[in-house]
Amino acid sequence: MINRLPWWVGGILMSGLLLLTFSIYGADRPLGASTYVPLFSGIIFDLDPEKYSYLKEIKNAGSWEGVMLLGALFGGFVTSVFITRSFRFSLIPSGWKKYKNGSVLSRLFWSFVAGFFMIIGARLAGGCTSGHFMSGMSQMAISSMIFGTVVMIALLVTGKFFYNTKDK
Amino acid sequence: MANVIFVTEDSNSIVDRVFSMVESVIHQPHGSVALVFLIGVIFGGIIQYTRVDKFEKIAGFAMLKDTIIPKMLFLTVGLTSIGLYFMIDAGQAHYHIKPIIWQGLIVGGVLFGASMAILGKCPGTGPVSIAEGRIDVLFGAIGGLLGGLVFTLYYDDFFKPLMGESLGKTILPDFFKGSGDITALVFGITVIIIAIAIPKRELFDEEDLSNLPDNKRPDKKEN
Description:
heterodimer, A: 168 residues, B: globular
């Protein structure tokens, strides 16, 4: 079932997509994937976009990413059904069972908490893996290099202490 | 004009808001709605087809048991940085630099990195995972939407002051005035070499592997 592209093909394709997105023949902007979240929050919790300064600030970027995200959901779904054939409903990853615990409740709780702080973190820094790491570092932006370094350190330290990786 | 059609008594309905999102893209000079959607389709397709949306890849990297994520990320950055520099030089693209806000980058980076290790997804790979049927990630997305709500509600009073002052939008070539071309080449090639030099390690999802015959299992053969 593992139908997949090697990492280097993925890197070349992703690079082509970034260049297309940046180019004046494409979207003439970077590719980002976290500004859409507060835009969707505003829609779902019915916040008046005229009353909140942040919603005004992100209206354009959030809308662009929102449409892109709908495409990503569609592309991800179609690929998972027809190409990787990995579509299946699941509540807990096998890596979580192996290195954390077998509790679905624990996985759902931690997913929720991590999702919450992930978006706060991305919005504080002004970007995520796509906007900062890929788009920002590709422009050799110092801000993105700082973010990338801090994220790598926090990711590895958390990975070391949150999971039981010894003797497995 | 489309608003005229959608103005009803409940002018703030979700359909209306989603429509105004699409309308905003129509009015922006950043590609047609079809192109932006297509960029998303390709983005989701690449993430899905390379399987980098998997918990075992992202949390696996946090545990240093899988290195596909950094290899692919660094290769993407290395290749793009060289191409983009010369495209911008030729006027075929523009810079869109994010400002150096030390507090925001550090506090945000710590929260983001720690959450990424636990969720095993980021805001781009998460939705692709949900599209693949991962319910636990949907809970992460609900958490994320609440995070977006809290950020929006307390932006002026709490989060904006926490982010700190911008120290400008510096890029690496600013430090090497006059030799931007060489800076871009050296940076790009160095990052590509890092991508290749990171030793390849893989953590597989046993639920995926168990569906395969032995001779197709990537953990049992070199690929």
